[in-house]
Write a structure and sequence with these properties.
By secondary structure, this protein is α/β, with parallel strands linked by helices. The protein has a single domain, classed as Alpha-Beta Barrel (TIM Barrel). Helix content is 24%, strand content 23%. It has 6 helices and 9 strands, in the order βββαβαβαββαβαβα. Strands 3-1-2-4-5-6-7-8-9 form a 9-stranded mixed sheet. β5, α3 and β6 form a beta-alpha-beta unit. 38% of the residues are buried. The model has no long low-confidence stretch (mean pLDDT 95).
């Protein structure tokens, strides 16, 4: 029986996205196929990262025991995990509201094809300051719909300029939810608002990471 490498599970609030401020049960996997300059979960991506081997049924039981209906599947990178689609199907079949946080360099087609009760997808576009933009899988964008989100984590004016190019070039405000988020400590949110006003970025949301405001920015398990 397959066991997944789980870095941690915990209950908290969603710090980002369309369900920001709502309770969520988090399932964090170890391992990632990228190495972003600003990554705040590098500890979960190391080859020697500690993990808890769990079967799909054990993960499902933990989610049920949490008493929380929203599940956030994150990492690391969840969509590179072996047997991830059967796990997602199991969670969706049990009527959880599943959200997948993915880094934009992994194929989302399998997750987007789950039916019924498909998971929502929050997909990062890695901007220049991440050092990972060249790995973005642009084929993913044809699978997005109104329940999904594209997130642009921005650390500079040039990042914001690139985000605006992608939003316009792929007509993303007509496809899905769009969020601009600051690299924590690297850019002033007020400057991001001024950029949005300057570029008339209608339909784009500025988001601040609630969990980094409520708790210590480096605290795990929140």
């Amino acid at each position: 029986m397959h066991k997944y490498n789980i870095a941690e599970t915990f209950s908290s609030i969603n710090g980002e996205g369309t369900k920001a401020g709502q309770l969520a049960f988090f399932i964090r996997f170890t391992g990632c196929n990228l190495n972003c300059s600003y990554c705040d979960t590098k500890w979960a991506n190391e080859k020697n990262a500690g993990s808890i081997p769990m079967t799909a049924e054990e993960i499902l039981d933990s989610a049920k025991n949490s008493g929380i209906k929203n599940i956030t599947v994150t990492g690391g990178e969840p969509l590179i995990q072996k047997e991830i689609i059967p796990l997602l199907e199991l969670l969706c079949k049990n009527n959880f509201n599943v959200e997948i946080e993915t880094n934009g360099a992994a194929d989302i087609s399998g997750a987007a094809g789950i039916f019924p009760n498909r998971p929502s997808i929050t997909l990062d576009y890695k901007l220049p300051s991440s050092g990972m933009e060249k790995f973005m899988l642009m084929e993913n964008y044809k699978f997005l719909d109104k329940m999904d989100t594209v997130k642009f984590v921005s650390g500079s004016r040039s990042d914001l300029e690139r985000a605006a190019e992608i939003i316009s070039g792929y007509d993303l405000t007509e496809k899905c939810h769009i969020y601009l988020s600051p690299v924590f400590g690297k850019i002033i949110p007020e400057d991001m608002v001024n950029f949005m006003l300057e570029k008339k970025l209608n339909g784009v949301n500025l988001q601040l990471q609630l969990h980094k405001i409520i708790w210590d920015p480096d605290k795990r398990g929140v």
